[in-house]
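INTERNAL TRANSFER SHEET
From: sequence group
To: structure group
Subject: Protein N-acetyltransferase, RimJ/RimL family

Please process the attached sequence and return the structure record in the designated field. Keep the field labels unchanged so the import script can parse them.
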Amino acid sequence: MPSEIATIQIEVPILETKRLILREPRNADWEAVRAFSMSDRSRHVGGPFNEWQAWSSLVSVAGHWAIRGYGMWTVEDKATGGVTGRIGIINHIDWPEPELGWQIFEGFEGKGLAYEAAMAARNHAQGSMGMGPLISQIAHDNTRSRRLAERMGAVIESEGEVRGTPCLIYRHPAGVA
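Return from structure group:
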């Protein structure tokens, strides 16, 4: 019998935009995360992954919130309840500083949803969480992500690498838009 029991409390602020809800990860997100993670769409975040790695990706989001106090939100379409992707602030052990990152799932690109969600996440991080100007680490050939960062006002600050893969480090502007 344990001498005591620890409780882990994870607080994930729920953000809403005109068309989206940015919320905590849920078990019900599994199929959408699995489909993204095991597809070629995940190539810019280290994939495609096998099923075990995809599951680890889903549950590690909750762990990031628990340990760092911030993380990726699941992005849900208000109209349909569908999971459109994941967007948020991440800072892995080998990264230079917190990053605003995004993963847009198949069928949801080209509708302005990524911009809407990323702006909400960035504004919350800089306004409510007191974070400074964030970075986004983007692969050279990830044209859509580069365009999104630039649309958000981010500029290339330097070159870097994520787990051995060269990338561009974009710096987002300070302040809430």
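Handover comment: The two ends are 52 Å apart (CA to CA). The CA atoms of residues 7 and 34 lie 28 Å apart.
Transfer complete.
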